[in-house]
Amino acid sequence: MQLLMAAVLAASTLTTPQLTGPFAVGTFDVRLTDSTRADPWQPGKNRELMVSVSYPARRTGQQAPWLGASLATALDPVISSPAYLGIPAGTVDWSGTRRQARVNAPATPGRWPVVLFSPGLQTPREFYAAAADDLAGRGYVVVTVSHTHETVAVEFPGDRIEWGLMQDASQATMKKAIDARVADMRFVLDQLPSLHKGADTTRVGIAGHSYGGYTAAETMADDRRFDAGINIDGAMEHTGDDGPYAPGKAVTGGLDRPFLLFGGDLGERELSHVDTSLTRTWADFWPNQHGWRRDVHLDDGAHLGFSDLQWSVPQIAAIPAERRESLIGTIDSGDSLRAQHDYVAAFFDLHLKHRGTRLFERPRHEGIRLVR
Question: Are 217 and 248 within 8 A, CB to CB?
Answer without folding.
Answer: yes
